[in-house]
TrEMBL record:
It is found in: Cytoplasm. The gene is rsgA. The lineage of its organism: Bacteria, Bacillati, Actinomycetota, Actinomycetes, Streptosporangiales. It holds the Pfam family RsgA_GTPase. This is Small ribosomal subunit biogenesis GTPase RsgA. GTP binds at residues 150-153, 200-208. Residues 111-256 form the EngC GTPase domain. Its EC number is 3.6.1.-.
Amino acid sequence: MNHAFPQALVPYGWDAALQQSFLPFTEDGLVPVRVAAVDRGRCDVITPGGPQRAALDPALPTGDPAAAPCTGDWGALRAGDPPVLAALLPRRTAIVRSAASGASRGQVLAANVDTVAIAVSLETRLALGRVERLLALAWESGARPVVVLTKADRSPDPDAAAAQVAEAAPGADVVTVSAATGQGVDVAAAVLTGTVVLLGPSGAGKSTLGNALLGADLLATGAVRDADGKGRHTTVRRELLPLPGGGVLIDTPGLRGVGLFDAAEGVQRAFAEIEELAEGCRFGDCGHDTEPGCAVQAAIAAGALPPRRLDSYRKLVRENERIAARSDARLAAERANRWKTISKAQRQGYRMRGGKDKGR
C-alpha cells in the first residue's frame, strides 16, 4: 500500500502528525484531502492531485453543525464518480459559536485554524464589546487571535484607536493596516501564520484585507453603507485559499451576531486581567460588586481597570452560562429519551418472552 507523504498538501498545512493519523485510511486506498468549502451537500477538497468536487458520505454527521464537515477539515477521500469524502480526521482546533437558530448546539465556523484574524474597521465607531466577544471565541478555539484594525487611512487617529483596542485585547497582537495605502500589510502578513481565518462583521474589510494578503483580488469586496456603516455580505460561503508566503487563508461571511458556546476558558483568556485581579479578592466567590476586599473594584476605583471591561466580562459570563444550561438540559433530555427507547424495547422483549413461555 502506498504510504507516500503527499508533498502537494504541505502548503495547505499537512505535516508528519497528520500523516500518522491518516495511516489507518491508507489501508482502504483512501487519499488525504483538505476541505476548502461545503455547500449543497457537496464539498470542494484539495487533493494531492489538485482540487476536486466531492460528495459527502451518508455516514458523516451532517445533521450536527458541531461535527459536520466544514472548511479547514482534513479528511479521507474515496475514489469514484463522484469521489466521496468518506471520513474526517480529528480536529486540532475549531471555532465554534452557538447555532444561529438559538438551539443548544454549537456550529463550527472553521476547523484546524492556527491564527484568527479579527477584522475591526477604523472607518466606524469602535465596538469594543464585539471585539471582546470575538476574542473569547478565538481563545476558546485553541488558535492564536490577532486583532487587525483595517481602513487606517480613514481614521482621524489610528494610534489612539489601537491603544483602546489593545486595552481590550490582553495577550493578543493588535496590528493596524490600510489595504488602500499598503500600510501595515507586511506586518499583518508576518503575524498571520499557518491556517488563518478572517472573522468580523460585514463591512469590516475582511475580504479587502484578504486580497492584500493574497496579493490578488480573489475575494469579492463591497462598499459600506453611509447610513449605518454596515457592508453587504460579499463573502457568501467559507473558502480556503493558499497564501503566497505559506499557509492558507479562510474567508468567512460577515457575522451579524456571534453567540458563545461552551467558551468559559475563552472568556477567561479574553479578560485575563480581571481573572488575575480576582485572585486577590478577600472572598473566593466574590461577585466584584459591593463585597469588602474586592480587588477588582479596587482596581476600578484606582483607574487601573475601566468599568466597561467588568460590565462586558459579566455579560459574556452570563451568556455562556445560559447556553451551557440549555446544552445540559438538551443532553439530559436526549439521555432520557434514549432510556425511554431502551425501556420500551425491554418491555416488549419481556412480553414476547412471556407469551412464548405461556404457550409451551
